[in-house]
Design brief:
Blueprint (H helix, E strand, L loop, with lengths): L8 E9 L8 H14 L2 E10 L10 H10 L8 E4 L2 H4 L5 H13 L3 E4 L10 H34 L12 E6 L5 E5 L11 E6 L2 H15 L5 H10 L12 H9 L7 E3 L2 E2 L7 E2 L6 E3 L9 H16 L3 H15 L4 H5 L7 H8 L2 H7 L9 H26 L4 E3 L6 E3 L3 E8 L1 E3 L5 E6 L8 E7 L6 E8 L7 E4 L5 H4 L2 E2 L3 H5 L6 H5 L1
Parallel strand pairs: 1-2, 1-3, 3-4, 14-17
Antiparallel strand pairs: 5-6, 5-7, 8-11, 9-10, 12-13, 13-14, 15-16, 16-19, 17-18, 18-20
Length: 514
């Protein structure tokens, strides 16, 4: 009798890279994994990847999510996952998270192999101990790197350099070199080109600077409230830096931000290692006073801050609750924006500070919303995000030589006179069972040739990924996306807008023929 040879094990490769380090480049990982597979008589039948993805969180890694979902399906078609090393599996701050993901694979009879590690991942006591230590070191590396980056950012702040964020109305970002010489204004969406260059804030156009000073004078000298100032600005046709009408809240931001008096303040909020956002107390703020050229005189700014503090402090707890109760009766519901847009009452921040949180203040006036009205604030932020996304896309297209016409009424883009594109932003929502969903509303009435759909992240603060949806597949005005949507839709998913921008690139015929 002739024995039947054992079939080759069917494996998949998992690739992850969060930085441009050569050691962890996708090509290097693939080469190592392929060599490992050949040495162990394995056949690689698929590759899953998460490029430019942090290893801190599983939720932001669609490649791993798809791989683990396939591994646990009845028709997975593979029994082994090959990973470069423990760090590529993840740098989870809770090491049990990485272990649980591997355990779920093992329950589905799928083994995980770490190709360059010096231990065999066979479940033996020694491999378990070494693997646990490796996971700890992977997490510790992320923590140490985070601390080093934060320390570096703090040092730059103390030296008077701007760290991220838009300049704001009346200000502009100026790129400077190592000698402090000005190299030019950075437009919205532009970044410094050299690592040694820095960014500072400088006064913007004279008309914007004068408008900011007028706002302060109206508040301090004329006693006008933020809502009245906003109404006057809108009546004059003056818009914010995001080309939006002024509101009480946006005026309040101008009147309270220290950058207008030249101070560089950082670490008001923190979001380290993908943890929850935290509002830091003033003693933890990093600051450099007088770092920039002031737009508003220090005495005028100080008077405005004192008036705002006095306005908030003159209300007793009972007064604040009475005002909040009246606002609830008038509006029917409460939110931070509703409070901030109401005249003659403290800000939402004052309520949160006085009563511990807005939710606590709501409870004292008997407001327990059946719905989560935070969507009002999120939608407002998303409208601003959409405006910036459209502006940035236009700038990137023009940077590579393309031409864009923007319809001011609909934001429909006509690129190079050849095709039209519509940019839409999809808010991230969570089901009761914890799954993420994105409801994409399409401008089918405009019939764009291409719809660029931006899926937002869990916090609805940044783009998670992009879907480039051509007109022929859009036979509806709405698409509901899950985390995984099958080949029919996910074939159009991209990590960045690079592919969309490249569609507008132009080259001379002579260059193409060369």
């Amino acid at each position: 009798m002739t024995g039947t040879p054992n079939p080759r094990r069917r494996a998949v490769a998992y690739i992850r890279m969060s930085t441009g380090l050569q050691q962890y480049s996708p090509d290097n990982q693939v080469a190592v994994i392929e060599r490992y597979a050949a040495e162990h008589d394995m056949e690689i039948v698929a590759t899953y990847s998460d490029e430019a993805r942090s290893g801190l969180r599983y939720e932001n890694r669609p490649g791993m999510q798809k791989m683990l979902a396939d591994a646990q399906s009845e028709e997975s078609g593979f029994d082994t996952i090959l990973v470069y090393d423990v760090t590529r599996w993840g740098r989870f701050q809770d090491q049990d998270e990485g272990a649980s993901l591997e355990f779920n694979c093992r329950k589905a009879n799928v083994q995980v192999h770490y190709c360059v590690e010096q231990f065999i991942n066979d479940g033996s006591p020694i491999s378990t101990v070494i693997k646990g230590f490796k996971r700890f070191m992977a997490a510790e590396y992320a923590r140490e790197l985070s601390n080093k980056v934060f320390a570096g950012q703090c040092q730059l702040i103390r030296r008077g350099f701007r760290q991220g964020g838009m300049a704001g109305y009346g200000l502009r970002r100026m790129r400077i070199d190592q000698r402090g010489e000005h190299l030019g204004i950075l437009d919205r969406g532009q970044y410094k080109s050299l690592q040694t260059d820095r960014v500072i804030l400088v006064p913007g156009p004279e008309e914007e600077v004068e408008t900011v000073r007028w706002m302060y004078r109206q508040f301090v000298e004329s006693g006008r409230l933020e809502g009245e100032i906003a109404a006057a600005l809108n009546e004059k046709g003056i818009v914010t830096d995001l080309a939006r009408p002024w509101t009480r809240g946006t005026v309040h931001q101008v009147l309270t931000n220290e950058k207008y008096v030249g101070n560089n303040v950082y670490n008001r909020h923190s979001f380290k290692l993908k943890a929850k956002h935290r509002k830091n107390p003033p003693e933890e703020w990093i600051r450099a006073d007088g770092a920039f050229e002031a737009v508003v005189d220090a005495p005028l700014f100080s008077t405005a801050q004192e008036m705002i503090r006095e306005r908030n402090s003159r209300f007793s707890d009972d007064d604040m609750i009475d005002l909040l109760r009246e606002l609830l009766k008038k509006k029917g519901f409460l939110s931070g924006i509703v409070i901030d847009e109401a005249d003659n009452m403290p800000s939402s921040g004052a309520y949160a500070s006085r009563f511990g949180s807005l939710v606590r203040a709501y409870s004292l006036v008997g407001f327990t919303p059946e719905r989560d009205y935070r969507y009002i604030e999120i939608n407002r932020a998303l409208r601003q995000f959409h405006a910036k996304a459209v502006t940035d896309a236009i700038a990137e297209i023009e940077k590579i030589g393309g031409a864009v016409e923007r319809d001011p009424a609909t934001d429909l883009l006509t690129v190079n006179g050849e095709f039209t594109a519509s940019i839409v932003v999809a808010r991230c929502r969570h089901t009761r069972t914890g799954f993420r969903r994105w409801n994409i509303r399409l401008d089918t009435g405009l019939a764009p040739d291409l719809t660029v759909a931006l899926r937002m992240d869990d916090a609805n603060e940044a783009a998670l990924d992009y879907y480039l949806l051509p007109l022929p597949i859009l036979d509806t005005n709405r698409i509901l996306l899950a985390e995984q949507n099958g080949l029919m839709l996910d074939a159009f998913r991209f990590e960045t807008l690079r592919h969309f921008i490249a569609m507008a690139e132009r080259a001379l015929i002579a260059e193409i023929a060369a």
